[in-house]
Amino acid sequence: MVKTSIALALGSGAARGWAHIGVIDGLAEAGIVPDIICGTSMGALVGAVHASGRLEALRDWALGADWRAIAAMVDVNVLAGGLVDGANIVHWLTGLGLPETIADLPLPFAAVATDITSGREIWLRSGPLAAAVRASIGMPGLFSPTNIDGHWLADGGLVNPVPVSLCRAMGADYIIAVNLNDELSGRPLVSEAEPPHAAPPRPDSLLGLIRSIPASVQAQMSSLRFFGASHTPGYFDVLANSIDIMQNHITRSRLAGEPPHAMILPAVSGIGLLEFHRAAEAIAAGRAAVERSLPAIEARLGARGRA
Predict the structure, then answer these.
(1) What is the pLDDT confidence band of residue 195, given thresholds at 50, 70 and 90?
(2) Nearest CA to 273 among 42, 5, 118?
């Protein structure tokens, strides 16, 4: 019996993307190891690290990261098309021991990005690995875009939040998709306004961190209110919820036309886009989602011939 080629389509979701680590762990414990990995945004980051054989190092970092570790990743540059330049993230990825190019990976890997000039979906299947990941995670309004081969690229979640189509194009026989954008709409906005004389909030997430540094950026952002009144939702609240709504609708549309063979849905809607300090919770949600989906996955893979 011919071996079935298994692909993982790891979806976007910023901090919720730590759930991909739990998904990969849970599948591996069940003997399900991907032959192909495709990722969008945070799915591209986790997928690239896993394809490099360095997932354990990423897991350890994520579980130990607090707001101070996250602060080291933030290099503010409001003149580069976003609040965060991202050079520190590229340096951090290199420090994890990832190979220089996608071609050097032991597993076939590709990331999705968006050409912000044309709106085209871009599949990054060759070239520098760290640059491909940095392009794919370039959340608009937060990260500056990445220039690759003369094209300015931003977050792949703008066009293809769960890259099932890319897995299929790379020759996968059986595609397991991980969707982190389910049931995101309807979460309340949190206002930036504070009660009089309130103590400054402790920056225990990337969202809180960006709100707290630096003073010049804080002053600029405080003027960016969308409805005129002083107690309306703040810039980052509107940005995060808008991205949630957008990705939820795009994901539903894309998956309806390009369904995977199996879908894993970690329960991570309660984790904010920028709450990277909640890795333990997200990883556990990924494992739990695999347990729920495993009987159906194993039944279909068994019928196709996994060995």
Answers:
(1) very low
(2) 42
